[in-house]
Specification:
Length: 240
């Protein structure tokens, strides 16, 4: 796992598939996503290398239920005592009570998905014992106030997290950076592309200097402008 400092309070944790983010307030830490199953040990080691204690992790905010984002949540919550939070539509899936809906693949996405799955554990993952449910507009005690933004389309309960005091936006998989050239793009493997495009536009309208994606390099300057330019290139179908 690679650890990259984006800001003095913000580090990117990059896994074989996907990535998570560690936000450091003065007395507590917040993980935005938790990586795939088996991420507990490398995440705890990264926290220790930063001079903090794993028990400083007070919350794990999941942007959605997919395994590359939620697979490590149960293990990390059990080892740190952190609270796990997810949108009210995602929480039953994260807890393992119901199956999550499958993506509606574009033809070109199928080989990408098949390749990504090869790098994920195949034996399932530990479910968190408890998941606190979030809704659009909730404000968390993170970074001076982090607003939960419902961004459906990738999954029904996908969320973003906006820290307006720091100009940081965590988009989950609603938005991504292209692995080819780093350009901003709509996230892939969506359950509803039209809703995903609308969510992209909603997130692009927020004021953010930095945008942190679930996949690909973050935009570290003038993020809102970059997101708006890309969002304007996507159309919603006539049926949407």
């Amino acid at each position: 796992m690679d650890v990259i400092e984006l800001l003095p309070r913000l580090h990117l944790l990059r896994f074989a598939v996907g990535q998570a983010y560690l936000w450091c307030d003065d007395t507590e830490l917040t993980l935005i996503d938790a990586g795939p199953a088996g991420s507990g040990t490398p995440v705890r080691e990264a926290i220790a290398a930063l001079g903090r204690q794993p028990e400083d992790v007070r919350r794990i905010v999941l942007t959605h239920f997919h395994e590359d984002h939620a697979g490590g949540a149960g293990e990390l919550a059990a080892s740190t005592g952190a609270e796990v939070l997810a949108h009210t539509l995602e929480a039953p899936v994260v807890r393992g009570e119901v199956p999550g809906p499958a993506p509606v693949f574009e033809d070109w996405e199928r080989p990408l998905h098949a390749e990504a799955v090869k790098h994920l554990p195949q034996d399932g993952f530990e479910r968190p014992a408890k998941v606190t449910e979030l809704n659009d507009g909730d404000v968390l005690d993170v970074g001076g106030g982090a607003r939960v933004v419902h961004a459906p389309g990738h999954t029904h309960g996908s969320i973003a997290l906006h820290l307006p005091h720091h100009g940081v936006l965590f988009t989950g998989d609603a938005i991504a950076a292209s692995p080819l050239d780093g350009s901003v793009m709509l996230g892939v493997f969506n359950v509803d592309r039209d809703r995903a495009v609308r969510s992209f536009r909603r997130l692009a309208a927020l004021d953010a200097e930095m945008a942190c994606f679930g996949h690909g390099d973050p935009v570290t300057g003038q993020a809102s402008a970059a997101l708006r330019r890309s969002a304007d290139t996507y159309a919603v179908s006539d049926r949407g």
